[in-house]
Structure formats: structure tokens, C-alpha cells
Amino acid sequence: QVQLVEFGGGSAQAGGSLRLSCAVSGYKFNCISWFRQQPGQGRGAVAVLRSGDRSTDYANSVKGRFTISRMGDMVLLQMDNLKPEDTGMYYCAAKSSTWERCNTRSGEAEYDYWGQGTQVTVSS
């Protein structure tokens, strides 16, 4: 049984940093993403990690500020230079996918497994 459990959300000032962690069990790593749901909006992928070559993809809004990585059975999202618009619920999600379909343009409907989410709040 696949389980994804997020840790590390919280509050930060603009310009600060937070690190989110996703503990993964029962899943053969293939395509893991961090999604963000901002207030009043749907979920969109902000960072994606492909297991085969450990290549990554980022949404333009977070490129250069967020870093996704894997450490054993943990998938990390390092968030630096945070902005108020980064506020939202962050979800770890996983699916089985080709390399080409493992990117931030893939919607939430394509993902099979989800964590419960962790809240990030950035104040100005």
C-alpha cells in the first residue's frame, strides 16, 4: 500500500526558507511531484522529480527558488526566497509515468497517490 506523508509546513517571512519532506512507502519511485493549492484555486504542480535520471522540472513561478530532491525514501522540497504568493497547501503526489509525461504540466488527475497536505504561510 502506497503512503505519502508530508512534514515541515509552517509560517515564514517573505525572503525566508522552509523545507518540506514527504515520507514515501510502498511505492516504486517513478514520478514524484509537489503540488500547491493556493486559496480559492485548484492544485498545480510546482516541482517534479523523475526517478530514473533524477532530472527535475519546475513551474516558472518557483524556478530558481525551490529545489526538489530525494534522500532515500524521502522527497524534499527546499523553498528559499519565499514570497507571500507561495502561501498555500502543499501536497506530495506520485504516479507511474513516462519521462515525457513527468513534468509540471501534468494535472492532478494523472496522479494516483497523494499525501494529506501541509500548510505553508508566507507573510510580507
Describe the structure.
The chain is mainly beta and 124 residues long. It is built from no helices and 11 strands. The strands form 2 sheets. Strands 2, 4, 5, 6, 9, 10 and 11 form a 7-stranded mixed β-sheet that branches. A 4-stranded antiparallel β-sheet has the order 1-3-8-7, with no helix packed on it.
Briefly summarize what is shown.
By secondary structure, this protein is mainly β.
How many H/I helical runs? 0
What share of residues is helical? under 10%
The overall pLDDT, averaged over residues, is 96
Which structural class best describes the helix and strand composition?
mainly beta
Q: What percentage of the residues does DSSP assign to strands (E)? A: over 45%
General form: globular
Give the tags:
mainly beta; 124 residues; four-stranded antiparallel beta sheet; seven-stranded mixed beta sheet
Draw up the topology in text.
Layout: E1 3-7, E2 10-13, E3 18-25, E4 31-37, E5 43-50, E6 56-58, E7 66-71, E8 74-79, E9 88-95, E10 113-114, E11 118-123
Parallel strand pairs: 2-11
Antiparallel strand pairs: 1-3, 3-8, 4-5, 4-9, 5-6, 7-8, 9-10, 9-11
